[in-house]
């Protein structure tokens, strides 16, 4: 099955998306995160004619839900299942969700969900988080230079994001990307930067993820808990 999106491009239906649909039941409230696969999941829910209420921290996903005529609400008090993508996730269910720049909102939805599931291709499910993915901070603009300097004092490289598709957050705050040779000490670093004045949040998810939904070598959907 091929799905055409509101934005350019398309994506084929995956076994992970079908596995996600299979756990849903009428009456549930379901959160769909950002990315084309989450829009594909919205299409799959519409095709299954599931009587669920949807919400999303991502504007393009919300637009897709609305275009499909599905029931959409703002941030609710409770979510049964929340699905999202990621840039890298380890087998302890620690994740980096850096590229989209909406991690503050994504955590709001994750924190009210009974199940917060990352739908990820197998190459993104790793033993240790990929150093190719930065730790991204949402920072109020006046504090950017202070945060960059403070991170540098900790021995890391930090740069304000000024190029690419996403350079600011939905709240108009700046994005600062921290890079490292490896993320062996990411928990300590994350604790340090979250305490810095002006930092709203980080893209490191340390406890929110309950499940990883991926595929094995044969393409069969696999749940990792």
UniProtKB/TrEMBL annotation:
Keyword Transmembrane in annotation: no
Source organism of this protein record: Lacticaseibacillus pantheris DSM 15945 = JCM 12539 = NBRC 106106
Listed GO biological process terms: D-ribose metabolic process; pentose-phosphate shunt, non-oxidative branch
Keyword line: Isomerase
Keyword flag Isomerase: yes
Protein name, as recorded: ribose-5-phosphate isomerase
GO cellular component: cytosol
SUPFAM superfamilies: D-ribose-5-phosphate isomerase (RpiA), lid domain, NagB/RpiA/CoA transferase-like
EC number: 5.3.1.6
Molecular function in Gene Ontology: ribose-5-phosphate isomerase activity
Alphabetized InterPro entries for the sequence: NagB/RpiA_transferase-like, Ribose5P_isomerase_type_A
Top-level taxonomic group: Bacteria
């Amino acid at each position: 099955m091929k799905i055409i999106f509101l934005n350019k491009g398309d994506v084929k239906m995956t076994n992970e998306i079908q596995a996600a649909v299979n756990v849903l039941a009428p009456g549930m409230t379901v959160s769909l995160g950002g990315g084309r696969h989450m829009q594909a999941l919205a299409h799959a829910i519409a095709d299954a004619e599931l009587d669920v209420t949807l919400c999303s921290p991502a504007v393009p996903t919300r637009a897709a839900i609305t275009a499909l005529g599905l029931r959409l609400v703002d941030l609710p008090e409770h979510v049964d299942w929340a699905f999202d993508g990621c840039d890298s996730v380890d087998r302890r269910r620690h994740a980096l969700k850096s590229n989209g720049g909406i991690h503050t909102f994504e955590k709001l939805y994750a924190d009210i969900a009974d199940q917060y599931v990352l739908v990820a291709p197998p190459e993104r499910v790793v033993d240790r988080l990929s150093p190719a993915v930065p730790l991204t901070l949402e920072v109020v603009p006046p504090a950017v230079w202070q945060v960059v300097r403070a991170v540098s004092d900790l021995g890391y490289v930090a740069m304000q994001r000024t190029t690419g598709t996403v350079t600011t957050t939905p709240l108009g705050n700046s994005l600062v990307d921290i890079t490292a040779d490896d993320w062996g000490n990411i928990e300590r670093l994350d604790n340090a930067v979250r305490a810095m004045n002006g930092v709203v949040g980080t893209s490191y998810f340390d406890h929110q993820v309950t499940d990883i939904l991926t595929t094995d070598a044969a393409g069969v959907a696999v749940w990792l808990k």
